[in-house]
Amino acid sequence: MRKVIVNEFVSLDGVAQAPGGEDEDTSGGFANGGWSMQYMDEPAMSSVLGAINEAGAYLLGRRTYEIFASYWPNAPEEEQVIAEPLNTKPKHVASRTLSGPLDWQNSTVLAGDVADAVAALKQEDGGDIHVIGSLNLLRTLLEHDLVDEFRLMIDPVVLGGGKRLFPDDGTMRPFRLVDNQVTTTGAILATYGRAES
Predict the structure, then answer these.
(1) Domains in the chain: how many in total?
(2) Looking at the predicted structure, is the pLDDT value of residue 100 above 90?
(3) What CATH number is associated with residue 110?
(4) pLDDT band at residue 9, thresholds of 50, 70 and 90?
(5) Which of 22, 84, 129, 163 is the most buried (most CB within 10 A)?
């Protein structure tokens, strides 16, 4: 069975909103976009690139899909090492407003109930399914117990507000540390798998 692996940048206070760019997501008045990039050293970049290359497919929410689809198909030559797998591998998009066919190559909108569609994807043959960003989608995946692994870059910064990585829903979800590394910038690269029951 394929795993659903969530790849996220997160601050010490649990914020995962707009780590990559100033204008990535300013909803709610968020003014700290791009906060994670100052911590992106060689080990962190190697981890990010490894996850992108390892993915058998990507699972994206509508907002993340639209951000990626507007950038990666026309990314500059120096970013092709990231753009090539993102552009060529299958992308499954969870959206209530988009309908197919989608413009970005190898992208399809999940049909029907998102949780059921993702559960079905997990049963298919192929490499693991990687989630990038997509915080609203992540809440649905957690609610339906569909996340098998988290790969987090925990940055040494407190943002004081913004969209949180995990829902405040009172549900305990145990995971276990599988791997970790401290980067030269003080960020922690941590992989958490499902806790054994």
Answers:
(1) 1
(2) no
(3) 3.40.430.10
(4) very high
(5) 129
